[in-house]
């Protein structure tokens, strides 16, 4: 069996699992929940960038993304932040759904799977 490497291991979850050169990120949320959807999305994408870099990957290697948004009325603003961040020519498959998030102050949660470089 190939090794499974975990980063930022906590009691409830690991922020990252790496197996067979594939990086799996836990759902990323903003720490600053006072920010609007734009600010929370920017912060979350920053977490994604940091964790992918730490895992030997980057946003050009994303294989799939799942975005959970608290209210679809926020979708256009979230998309503007996503569009400014995503690597053109490397846009990954993506699903976006409205969901009641565990913390009501969180407006967006993003899950990413990526290949290592």
From TrEMBL:
InterPro entries linked to this entry: RidA_CS, RutC-like_sf, YjgF/YER057c/UK114, YoaB-like
Please name the PROSITE patterns in this protein's record. UPF0076
Source superkingdom: Bacteria
Gene3D superfamilies, A to Z? RutC-like (3.30.1330.40)
- Signal peptide region: none
Family, similarity comment: Belongs to the RutC family.
This chain belongs to which protein, by name? Answer: RidA family protein
Q: What is the source species?
A: Pseudoduganella plicata
């Amino acid at each position: 069996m190939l090794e499974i490497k975990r980063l930022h291991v906590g009691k409830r979850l690991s922020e990252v699992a790496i197996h067979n050169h594939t990086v799996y990120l836990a759902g990323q949320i903003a720490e600053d929940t006072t920010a609007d959807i734009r600010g929370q999305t920017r912060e979350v994408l920053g977490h994604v960038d940091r964790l992918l870099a730490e895992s030997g990957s980057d946003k050009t290697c994303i294989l799939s993304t799942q975005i959970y948004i608290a209210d679809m009325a926020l979708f256009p603003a979230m998309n503007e932040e996503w569009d400014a961040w995503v690597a053109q020519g490397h846009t990954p498959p993506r699903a976006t759904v409205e969901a009641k998030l565990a913390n009501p102050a969180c407006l967006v949660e993003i899950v990413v799977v990526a290949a290592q470089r």
